[in-house]
Design a protein that fits this description.
Elements: E1 4-5, H1 11-19, E2 32-33, H2 36-39, E3 65-68, E4 71-73, H3 78-95, E5 109-111, E6 121-123, E7 128-131, H4 132-147, E8 155-157, E9 160-165, E10 172-177, H5 180-199, E11 215-221, H6 226-232, E12 235-239, E13 242-248, E14 256-258
Antiparallel strand pairs: 1-2, 3-7, 4-6, 5-11, 8-14, 9-10, 9-13, 10-11, 12-13
């Protein structure tokens, strides 16, 4: 912390008082103050959703809490980039809104940024809130889980689009659902991750891994697409993990493969 003295009386006045000082002289005290640039350093400004494309914080900010996600990273290949464009088009058609050039956040369709953390990924469980003392134990146990996991080949996605609703019902995503051959392997890994988190007391409840709709989100919007989903979606899935709809692709389109880490 930086501190600086307030302006004092002139040196001549201080000298005269010190020279004539006796038992009745009054010594001057120097008061310290904190510069304004420092005093506001720890003041948390009110959050403005407009600065974050209309998004609001999922969990309250508490000093010492660390929001943690466990996931498989998906490489942003050219094929996946084309799929991201298709996901944006699907959301645009379902919600009947324009693209991200609109002025209102509710009228925007966004591509998930593959280069901003966490990038394109397949989540292996819910968001975890860690205190510092749980970070090393969690990482240590996850390293053991990863060391005992074997994947046979790259991840393969279904030939359709998955539309997912955020649990608060204020945001919707479009992405790709893992094909069952890949989902079986990843679901086993997700079950191990959930068991680790539960063993450390990090989960209030542990939804079954079997109910996970393992997917990679590639686009999102604040515009409600339910009106369009009624006509386009062929399947609706609802579980403790949330709600999603599946839209099949046109006949003749290929399955999508992706490299994961």
């Amino acid at each position: 912390m930086i501190a600086r003295p307030m302006a004092s009386e002139s040196s001549s006045e201080e000298g005269s008082e010190s020279e004539g000082g006796g038992a009745n002289s009054t010594s001057k005290r120097r008061r310290l103050t904190v510069p304004a640039v420092i005093s506001r350093l720890f003041v948390r400004e009110e959050e403005n959703p407009a600065l974050h494309d209309g998004r609001t914080r999922r969990v309250p900010h508490i000093e010492g809490n660390y929001a943690t996600s466990v996931y498989l990273h998906i490489e942003p290949t050219q094929q996946m980039k084309h799929q991201a464009d298709d996901c944006m088009s699907v959301l645009r058609g379902l919600s009947g809104v324009g693209d991200c050039s609109g002025d209102q956040a509710a009228n925007q369709i966004h591509r998930v940024d593959p280069h901003a953390a966490p990038g394109w990924h397949v989540s292996l469980g819910p968001l975890l809130i860690l205190r510092r003392q749980f970070i090393k134990p969690l990482l240590s146990q996850l390293e053991k889980v990863a060391a005992n996991t074997n994947f046979s080949g790259p991840l393969v996605f279904e030939d359709g689009f998955e539309i997912l609703e955020a649990q608060r019902g204020d945001r919707w995503f479009a992405g790709l659902l893992l094909a069952e051959a890949s989902a079986h392997q990843v679901r086993t890994l997700a079950a191990d991750v959930l068991a680790v988190a539960s063993g450390l007391g990090l989960l209030e409840k542990q939804p079954p891994a079997e109910a996970l709709r393992l997917h990679c989100s590639l686009a999102w919007t604040l515009a409600n697409p339910r009106a369009g989903l009624g006509a386009e979606a062929t399947e609706c899935h609802e579980s403790a993990w949330g709600r999603s709809w599946h839209i099949k692709k046109k006949a003749g389109e290929d399955a999508i493969t992706a490299m994961s880490q």
